[in-house]
């Protein structure tokens, strides 16, 4: 994901300085780095420990540079499957780019199933009225999952990547 799109998604999540941002499919931390630049506190997690370590290295680097607004106490990263994620504190916003199974691995799970299971588990980790900004492929209809789990869709934007993939950015609010 480009830094520009990552920053755009962070902004769409309504997160403010000093609030807590979570990316549960953090990869090497592209989205979290954009959060760092606007001074949010950060939690990343990933099923792949190498990715989790990459995030920690990148955020550690950010904490040493002036234009990033974080210090080493402001971030943490965990090696965990999103379906088992139960944080000890609820977050103000979730911004994430789950795997579609094209260039990034879903760990053998069907992409639609991962999105459903992700939404089920993320609900527990979000504060009341928290926002979720998520990227998903055009061919995956996440609306039935949103309706089933009590999430409200607020905005939707389309980005054409190439002839067989349009990326959809959905901004969603937890309503329960
Ligand atoms: C599209 S990448 C995220 C890229 C990230 N936005 C970045 O800029 O670096 C998706 C990530 O999801 C992770 N992943 C796949 N299945 C997962 C699961 N069940 N729980 C947590 N992470 C998972 C993969 O290891 C991969 O790092």
Write up this protein.
This protein has 176 residues and is α/β, with parallel strands linked by helices. It has one domain (3-174): Vaccinia Virus protein VP39 (Rossmann fold, 3-Layer(aba) Sandwich). Helix content is 31%, strand content 31%. The chain is built from five helices and seven strands, in the order αβαβαββαβαββ. It has helices at 3-12, 30-37, 49-63, 111-125, 143-149; strands at residues 20-23, 41-46, 75-79, 91-96, 126-137, 151-162, 165-174. It has a seven-stranded mixed sheet, with helices on both faces. α2 (30-37) packs parallel to α3 (49-63). The longest helix is centred in the N-terminal third of the chain and has 15 residues, at 49-63. The protein is globular and about 40 Å long. The relative contact order is 0.17. The mean pLDDT is 92. The structure holds S-adenosylmethionine (SAM).
Tell me the β content: 25-35%
Question: What is the total tally of β strands?
Answer: 7
* CATH-defined topology: Rossmann fold
Characterize the overall form. globular
CATH class: Alpha Beta
Helix content: 25-40%
DSSP helix count? 5
Number of separate domains: 1
| Gap between N and C termini | 30 Å
Q: What hetero molecules are bound to the protein chains? A: S-adenosylmethionine
Radius of gyration based on Cα positions: 15 Å
Class inferred from helices and paired strands: alpha/beta
């Amino acid at each position: 994901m480009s830094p520009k799109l990552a920053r755009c998604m962070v902004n769409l999540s309504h997160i403010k300085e000093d609030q807590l941002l979570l990316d549960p499919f953090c990869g090497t931390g592209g989205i979290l780095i954009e959060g760092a630049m606007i001074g949010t506190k950060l939690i990343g997690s990933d099923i792949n420990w190498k990715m989790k370590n990459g995030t920690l290295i990148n955020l550690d680097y950010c904490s040493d540079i002036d234009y990033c607004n974080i210090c080493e106490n402001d971030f943490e990263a965990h090696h965990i499957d999103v379906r088992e994620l139960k944080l000890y504190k609820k977050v103000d916003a979730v911004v994430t780019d789950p795997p579609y199974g094209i260039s990034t691995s879903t760990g053998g799970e069907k992409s639609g199933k991962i999105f459903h299971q992700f939404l089920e588990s993320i609900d527990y980790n979000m504060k009341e009225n928290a926002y979720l900004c998520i990227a998903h492929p055009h061919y995956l209809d996440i609306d039935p999952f949103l309706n089933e789990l009590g999430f409200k869709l607020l905005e939707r934007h389309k980005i054409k990547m190439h002839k067989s993939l349009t990326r959809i950015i959905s901004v969603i609010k937890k309503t329960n």
